[in-house]
Write a structure and sequence with these properties.
alpha+beta, 2 domains, two-stranded antiparallel sheet, about 25% strand, globular
Amino acid sequence: MIAADTSSVLAQSDDVRRKHFNIKKNIAIEGYDPVSYFDNKPLEGKATLLFPYKGVTYHFANIDNFTKFKTSPEKYEPAYGGWCAYAMGESGEKVKIDPETYKILEGKLYLFYNFWGNNTLSDWNKNESELKAKGDHHWKKIIP
């Protein structure tokens, strides 16, 4: 009986993540390899190297990155479900990202909107600590 209750809670958690994470065609980060950012070179993942983690599926550029993610997925998952960090900090909105506009901060991947001459990473850098604190607060309301 307890196992069934745990399973139900896990399924609900996966559903919440799927609902609130930035996912296109069932894939996170527009198919980019989350581990590759930590090598300072965002790479598109391969559809043949994928790993579902708590309801969210990631692609990987190579088997080494796949293995690193599988060993510690929480280390490599993007902050704020892969939505624009600046927008999450500024207003709590879920705004699309350019998967090649990012920052690693305190060992966490943050992604940003960068279209039509508006690169929100620049704005983030001007007020990073306040925006991060607000972003953390907003995201905890979305994913407790």
